[in-house]
């Protein structure tokens, strides 16, 4: 089954969440997760992102980096720089967007459009 796997450059847990929120408020330009900066405000998920995430265009899974590394632990797993979005299908995991890609994005709308374009491309490839 094909799906997108989002891995944030943040660790799970209440304490880490509070530290991340404080970091975004005090020094947003040095915050280490550009994906989080696109999809979340200082205190919660952006409405536009949540609305898109709730669509049925493609299944999506979301992980903090510690959760991802624990669930997908394998000596064959490539070393990813987080944040990252991976595409998973019968062939395995492939990188869709990298940490560098997120640095070039100015808005959650750009991220959504990139994902929609990717899905259209997938659907076109499957039909050919």
TrEMBL record:
It comes from the Bacteria. This is GTPase. It comes from Dokdonia pacifica.
